[in-house]
Structure formats: C-alpha cells, structure tokens
Amino acid sequence: MGRRATVQNSPELDEIRAEYERLWTDMQQADAKKAMRILERGRRKLSPPKLRLIEMLKPLRSRLLWAIPLGTVTAIGASYAAFIWIALWVE
Q: Membrane spanning segments where (predicted)?
C-alpha cells in the first residue's frame, strides 16, 4: 500500500487551490455559524483517526453524563431492596 500524495505534492494543486478560493468566497457570504460548522467538520475529517476518536468520545468524559444513569440504577436498586425489606418486615 503506497503513501498518498499530499496536497503540496499533488498534480492537482492548482485545481485544489482554485476550489479553495471559490469555497472561501462563498463562505464570506454565508452565515458565520454555518461557516464555522463547515470548517470544523472539514478539520475533523482531515485529522488522524486517533484524534477523531478522542474528540468523538469527549462528551462521554462528563461526570454528569455518568452520574445520572448510575443514580437511576442506584435508586431502582434501593427501591427494590426497600420493597423486599418492608415485605419481609410486614409478614
């Protein structure tokens, strides 16, 4: 499997540069938020797979995201244990 040519070494360098200039011109007329989303999406696609995976998993690193399901499971377990304990106590 051979290495792919970078843009700098590509025979289509002038075509790529012209397409970039057209895109830049179009983006200057677009909404700023939309332009930022396009640029961020392009940056993610160009980044190495390892960095893409790290960036994709970044929201899962939030403590709140894990605290809510764990709290729910704990509450359900405690409710079940309390129900069994009360049922045995009443009997």
A: 64-88
